[in-house]
Specification:
It is a single chain. The protein is 39% helix and 15% strand. With 497 residues, the chain is α/β, with parallel strands linked by helices. It folds into 3 domains: 3-164 and 259-300, P-loop containing nucleotide triphosphate hydrolases (Rossmann fold, 3-Layer(aba) Sandwich), CATH 3.40.50.300; 167-255, no CATH class; 307-487, Rossmann fold (3-Layer(aba) Sandwich), CATH 3.40.50.300. The strands form 3 sheets. Strands 3-4-2-5-9-1-10 form a 7-stranded parallel beta sheet, with helices on both faces. It has a 7-stranded parallel beta sheet with strand order 13-14-12-15-16-11-17, with helices on both faces. The longest helix is centred in the middle third of the chain and has 19 residues, at 196-214. The radius of gyration is 24 Å and the shape is globular. The two termini are 39 Å apart.
Length: 497
């Protein structure tokens, strides 16, 4: 494999050219899909650009918007980026966002210097990057390069979830009343699965009410909301496998399959490269996207980070299951106190998985360690919490939802703690139904979340940090961890050998 396909300013790292050669061989041999697992530090973005150079014209996409931005901001990659219209402030129309400007001004398409220019550049460039939603739903412009030779999906382990989320919607009584639709009056218990045929009949009627009402809706935001709702209803009804339930008097619809959405996405390119640091169960991943294993090749790159730099300590403190009244809670909190006491000059992060657990852990630790313990709320306060950690001398962040999309290199964090195995919430009917159909799916996602979370604190070959896990249910996940990750476990329990 020639180095010329690499971005000129980058030198290939160990293993990258081997991976690219395997991708070339697979595609030349007739495979339409390739799965690349490249642990943190492998340099997946450079590989993605090299594959675009090798194949010809291509897209890069990701379920993670922050990663899309990282790609576009890397000048060495030379990618044309586009985002949703609402994220652009239109300079031609006093800075209102381009989505509203498009609703309000007929000449927006000819005068816009922001979204329209970015959109056109995206379709006309040979190499482009955007989020999954745009690539699924946006229409190519005349003369744009479509379909392309290759689609690269980074952080692909999240692809099924993001595609299913596109169709999941909550329909409120207010949604129905505003367009004078027929009320949904099927009696049911909260979160109890409903009869699909009866709900389908009602949804079709509601969809027709939306279509009729859109002709008289003048408010741009309201119109877009109903158009998005109609789109989600169509997505769900046509996906071939979905469930529905009532929740707090609202109707919830949720696709159970992403296969139809995946087929639609894959139409944008002749071949598809999936990349992630942790793909988990690849056979399950391909099956859930409707891909024949015989049409895909797989390559798992070696982890280049020394085991001694990413040690994992498991101590069985008991179950953290709410159904068992969390008998391991007290010992887990004691272990957290011991870690903070023994590491007085280090920063770290505690993955709490839920707001209730975050509160329990933070209150326990604040009583002993005071302002050293940092918490965060929702929305922008998440970023403020991370900032407070980075600006502290020895802060410890009690976090929720930070197992992905976060970099804490070097002294920004020297340890991370999992207060609980991050199981998906079984009170959600979608999660409960998916687990009923596949326990492996349920366990695989928990294992992926742990791998991703431990990777937040070791970001290079010279970086080092320890990971601590205390929940006894961790032992059930051993078959789902890759060998390179399990090799860093400091053995202490016979269950892990």
């Amino acid at each position: 494999m020639k180095q010329e396909i690499f971005p000129p300013s980058l030198a290939p790292r160990e293993g990258q050219l081997e991976a690219i050669e395997k991708i070339r061989t697979a595609f030349d041999g007739g495979k339409h899909f390739f799965v690349l697992e490249g642990p943190t530090g492998f340099g997946k973005s450079a590989v993605a650009k090299a594959v675009l150079n090798m194949c010809g014209k291509g897209f890069i996409t990701s379920p993670v918007n922050t990663l899309v931005s990282q790609y576009s901001q890397d000048d060495s990659l030379g990618l044309a980026e586009v985002r949703g219209q609402s994220t652009y402030a239109c300079r031609a129309f006093e800075g209102i966002n381009c989505e509203k400007a498009g609703d309000s001004f007929e000449d927006h398409s000819t005068k816009c210097m922001d979204y329209i220019l970015a959109r056109d550049a995206f379709w006309m460039a040979k190499h482009s990057v955007t989020n999954v939603h745009f690539l699924c739903y946006a229409s190519p412009i005349e003369g744009g390069f479509y379909p392309r030779d290759v689609l690269v999906v980074d952080e692909a382990h999240n692809l099924e979830n993001i595609l299913i989320t596109m169709g999941r919607r909550t329909i409120t009584s207010e949604d129905v009343n505003l367009i004078h639709g027929r009320p949904f009056d099927l009696p049911a218990k909260d979160k109890e699965l409903l009869n699909l045929s009866k709900v389908t009949e009602w949804l079709r009627q509601f969809e027709s009410h939306i279509t009729y009402a859109l002709g008289s809706v003048e408010d741009g935001d309201e119109k877009r909301n109903y158009e998005n709702l109609r789109q989600a209803i169509n997505f769900t009804l046509n996906c071939g496998d979905w469930i529905t339930w009532k929740e707090k008097e609202n109707l919830v619809i949720a696709p159970m399959s992403a296969r139809r959405a995946a087929r639609s996405l894959f139409r944008c390119a002749r071949r598809v490269l999936f990349m992630s640091a942790t793909m988990g169960n690849v056979s399950l991943f391909l099956k859930n996207l409707g891909i024949d294993e015989n049409d895909a090749a797989v390559y798992r790159a070696d982890c280049r980070f020394p085991q001694a730099n990413r040690r994992i300590f498991y101590r069985n403190c008991g179950s953290m299951s709410k159904t068992q009244n969390q008998p391991g809670m007290s010992r887990m909190l004691q272990e957290c106190s011991s870690i903070l006491t023994n590491r007085p000059d280090e920063r770290g992060i505690i993955h709490c998985h839920s707001r209730a657990l975050q509160l329990a852990v933070s209150q326990h630790l604040i009583s002993e360690f005071g302002k050293r313990v940092i918490t965060h709320g929702t929305g922008s306060d998440r970023d403020r919490g991370i900032k407070r950690l980075r600006q502290s001398r020895n802060g410890v962040l009690c976090s929720v939802g930070m197992t992905e999309g976060l970099d804490l290199p070097d002294d920004e964090a020297r340890f991370c703690i999992f207060a609980k195995v991050p199981w998906l919430n079984l009170s959600d009917p979608y999660v409960a139904e998916r687990r009923k159909r596949s326990q492996s799916w349920y366990e695989n996602l928990a294992a992926l979340s742990i791998i991703q979370g431990s990777g937040r604190v070791v970001r290079s070959t010279t970086d080092y940090a320890d990971t601590f896990i205390f929940d006894s249910s961790f032992e059930r996940l051993m078959p789902h961890f890759p060998a390179w990750w399990k090799s860093a476990i400091v053995q202490g329990s016979p269950a892990l050998t």
